[in-house]
Amino acid sequence: MDHFSFKHGVLHCESVDVTALASRFGTPLYVYSQQTIVDHYNRMVTAFESLSANMCYSVKSCSNLSILALLNTCGACFDVVSGGELARVLEVGVDPKRVVFAGVGKTDLEMIAALDAGIGWFNAESEQELEILAHLASQRGTIAQVALRVNPDVDPQTHHHTTTGKRETKFGVDLPLAQRVFEAFAKTPSINLAGVHVHIGSPVHHIEAYVDSIKRTLDLIARLRAGGHTITSINVGGGYGAHYTGEEAPTAADYAANIVPLLQGTKLTVMLEPGRSITANAGVLIARTIFKKSSGEKQFVIVDAAMTDLIRPALYDAFHFAWPVAPVKEMVPPQRKHDLQLEGTERVDIVGPVCETGDFLAKDRWLPPVVRGDLLCIFSSGAYGFSMSNQYNSRPRAAEVLVHGDKVKLIRRRETYEDLVALERSE
Ligand code: LLP
């Protein structure tokens, strides 16, 4: 699952003692394991090897330059959703042909940047976007390669905020309309509409939903081909699970066992856009206990990390396993379970300093006793952790470090108060 483990009662990332990292770089601190990123990436590649699928890492899950550079050396392609993400992948030297660009609201400037860079595929989400893209490409005397994102109207059975494949969401084009869109743009010289993209949500543990949405998409492709359209690619999106509690998510091999047979023999270039399944288990958030207090039955452990560092619990009620980095009596958790309750533990809420009741990292957890100054680890925070962090309450964002064996690299320095105000100073 990952390379975070307790050695002699102290949490290590690969070979590095996490308490030493916290002393050196301060807290809150994101710590990533390079080996875990590479392992999870390789598992996806191996699982889909028989299709020679292009693994387009979804940059939004964790967009640090060093992690993008690492995945670039692994041979990944990249899924971006903004001009900013495009700038990041270009910054680390990604071949633009290996970039796919999704998103319901690409601005003209973003489309121009992507056209000028010469990216591999635009994943277009509406007729109007196609019209504007065609216009901008023709102005530049270029041809944009485009996949149409379809909305298969399939329920991925995940949180409603991260459900994207149902008709009532803003994503993609309805399947019945999709065929008409292909017809309308078939002869537009500045776009080559030759692919279909589908992404139903995140995380999706219900593999049947992928099967359903891919079958619907393949039916559309069959109809398009029968109508004389040349379709060369299918992009089946991301959403593959990560392990937040033990080993609850399907593995890359489980997904592939159901998805690969559908795509074999279709003569389509297959693309996937995994994000979370590569980075979630590869990162943890380390926080230091500031105070403890109780209120009635409740015990609060107040730490220096907050919803500004990891918003997933506040936003989706997401579960992240939490445990002291160096627990008393070397009390090591046998599993990272939801309801783990060992002898000698106390029931607490782990909360941050932000002035919102929604500012919590973990609720009603049985933790070994912690005191002021103790470090806590919030596990499986590598995806949508730092990348969704913000400066609310004027809190500088955390630092990030990448560990590889016994080597440590600071990959993002901690923000300073100067960083907070620099863009607002008058001349
Ligand atoms: N492709 C597209 C078009 C997407 O919209 C997404 C994620 C992905 C791929 C990657 O999905 P993944 O493999 O990482 O599950 N902030 C939420 C997740 C939002 C996902 C947005 N789109 C969370 O923290 O759970």
What secondary-structure arrangement, pairings included, does this model have?
Elements: E1 4-7, E2 10-13, E3 16-17, H1 18-25, E4 29-33, H2 34-47, E5 54-58, H3 65-73, E6 77-80, H4 83-91, E7 99-101, H5 108-117, E8 121-124, H6 127-139, E9 144-151, E10 173-174, H7 175-185, E11 191-197, H8 207-226, E12 233-235, H9 252-263, E13 269-272, H10 276-279, E14 283-295, E15 298-303, H11 312-316, E16 322-324, E17 346-351, E18 360-367, E19 375-378, E20 399-404, E21 407-412, H12 417-421
Parallel strand pairs: 4-20, 5-6, 5-13, 6-7, 7-8, 8-9, 9-10, 9-11, 11-12, 12-13, 15-17
Antiparallel strand pairs: 1-2, 2-3, 4-14, 14-15, 14-19, 16-19, 17-18, 20-21
Helix pairs in contact: 2-9, 5-6, 7-8, 8-9
The structure holds ligand LLP.
Ligand LLP binds at residues 58, 61, 79, 102, 162, 199, 202-203, 237-240, 273-277, 312, 316, 383-384.
Folded structure, characterized:
By secondary structure, the protein is an alpha/beta fold. The chain has two domains: 174 residues, Lyase, Ornithine Decarboxylase, Chain A, domain 1 (Beta Barrel); 243 residues, Alanine racemase (TIM Barrel, Alpha-Beta Barrel), CATH 3.20.20.10. The chain has twelve helices and 21 strands. The strands form three sheets. Strands 4, 14, 15, 16, 17, 18, 19, 20 and 21 form a nine-stranded mixed beta sheet that branches. Strands 5-6-7-8-9-11-12-13 form an eight-stranded parallel β-barrel, surrounded by four helices. The protein has a three-stranded antiparallel beta sheet with strand order 1-2-3. α2 runs parallel beside α9, α7 runs parallel beside α8 and α8 packs parallel to α9. The longest helix has 20 residues. The site of ligand LLP has 21 residues, from α10 and α11.
